[in-house]
Amino acid sequence: MRKLLLLCAALLVLCNIAQAQSCALPWLAARLSAVESTGYNRGPLVDKIIVAGGGNPYVRKSPEWCGFTQAAANRACGCPIPRNGTQGRAAAWFPLTGPDAHRTVFFRGRRGSIDSIRAGQKAGFDYGAGIHHVNAVAELGRPVRAGRAPRSVWCVGGNEGTGATAGVKRNLWPVTSIDGLSDWSK
């Protein structure tokens, strides 16, 4: 009887994790029409996303909003976000120390394996001075050979592109460009 209860509890936890992962991606996909109106990280839909992610679009002249996009998706699904109001910073989604360090499953040169990549995880990108961009992994690309890890992933994130065409977009990224993976689904 006890084994049956433990099995049921484990299945319930797995169902909740799958539901959280499947919730954030449709939330992001529904906002693919959000674009910047001025090209300076501002616009009516961008401002709404920043507020939904717990930020204030008027605090800074042009707030980066990739982290707030992920925070808004996670909040809408009841999933956790980085603590202490740092969810707007991309690096906050990939902690190596502290109470959320267990969420980082891959960080180049330090831990994990890129083979652990899964849909629903957060992917971080380094632009030369640490992780400064975060997306949600939407779908794995095709592997070149059967039994191998994919060489690309489809990701959805905010602040993608340049100028007035920047917005929430779905892009194909090579796995070699990913510098961090984290799991914020539970």
Write a structural description.
The chain is of the alpha+beta class and about 190 residues long. It has helices at about 1-30, 45-50, 65-75; strands at about 105, 110, 120-125, 130-140, 150-160, 165-175, 180. The protein has a single domain (about 20-180), classed as endopeptidase fold (from Nostoc punctiforme) (Alpha-Beta Complex), CATH 3.90.1720. It has a 7-stranded antiparallel sheet. Helix 1 (about 1-30) crosses helix 3 (about 65-75) and helix 2 (about 45-50) packs across helix 3.
CATH topology category name: endopeptidase fold (from Nostoc punctiforme)
CATH class: Alpha Beta
Task: Catalogue the unreliable spans.
Answer: 1-20
Number of strands: 7
Alpha carbon gyration radius: 17 Å
Name the structural class: alpha+beta
Tag the structure with descriptive keywords.
186 residues, endopeptidase fold (from Nostoc punctiforme), seven-stranded antiparallel beta sheet, 26% helix, globular, disordered N terminus
